[in-house]
Design brief:
- The protein starts with a helix and ends with a helix.
- The chain has 209 residues and is an alpha/beta fold.
- The chain is built from 5 helices and 22 strands.
- Helices cover 24% and strands 30% of the residues.
Length: 209
């Protein structure tokens, strides 16, 4: 197997010239994205569409960093705020209506534990999957192989090392489920504060509760 084939199969591989060539293509796109006029929203969206392997109305606030871009698949209405990093050695699949606060990092890349093995230059990638309607708080790190379910909120500063089930509020280092999200949360805004009546009436009208 070639190193690209090994990488894409989730096996140990070495970053050889063929892999560096793929990364060079990505870095040229990132160079364009990260030095664009920040007020050129349409231009930024077009570069993001070209960068990602799959997207539908995605927007990223530069700066943004990744290894390939082509291994990133996002659903409708994806938004990543400033300074997002996605090390997409393996696939990163993100569902519809997902939001990422500043400084979120998703890592699929890893290295052997034992130092001699690690110094051999072999590494690996393990897929990360994020479901629909997920909000990831600022400075969160998502580690290789993690699957996050639908309708999840990840609290700021979390380090997600294990899978998180649907309809959960989870936070911490390591990240743990704190509670389930229920219908009692429909009007929650911030802590015990609720959405005001004017805004709530608009939400009910537009979102068809």
């Amino acid at each position: 197997m070639t190193n690209k084939e090994r990488r894409d199969a989730g096996l140990a591989y070495i970053s050889d010239e063929s892999i560096f060539e793929e990364q060079q293509v990505c870095r040229r796109k990132l160079q364009k994205l990260n030095f664009m006029d920040r007020s050129d929203f349409n231009g930024i969206a077009q570069v993001v569409k070209c960068l990602f392997g799959k997207s539908d109305g995605a927007f990223v606030n530069p700066p943004f960093y990744c290894d390939y871009g082509s291994h990133i698949e996002v659903g409708k209405n994806f938004f990543a705020n400033y300074n997002c990093t996605i090390l997409d050695v393996a696939k990163v699949k993100i569902g519809d209506n997902c939001q990422m606060a500043p400084n979120v990092s998703i890592y699929t890349a890893g290295h052997p534990v034992y130092p001699v093995s690690r110094n051999s230059a072999y590494e690996y990638g393990k897929e990360v999957v994020v479901g629909d309607n997920v909000w990831i708080g600022g400075n969160t790190v998502i580690c290789p192989g993690v699957h996050i379910g639908d309708n999840v909120v990840i609290g700021a500063g979390s380090v997600v090392t294990k899978d998180i089930p649907d309809w959960s509020v989870a936070a911490g280092n390591p990240c743990r489920v704190l509670r389930k999200i229920t219908k009692d949360d429909q009007k929650k805004l911030f802590r015990e504060e609720e959405i005001d009546e004017e805004a709530w009436a608009d939400i009910v009208k537009r979102m068809k509760f």
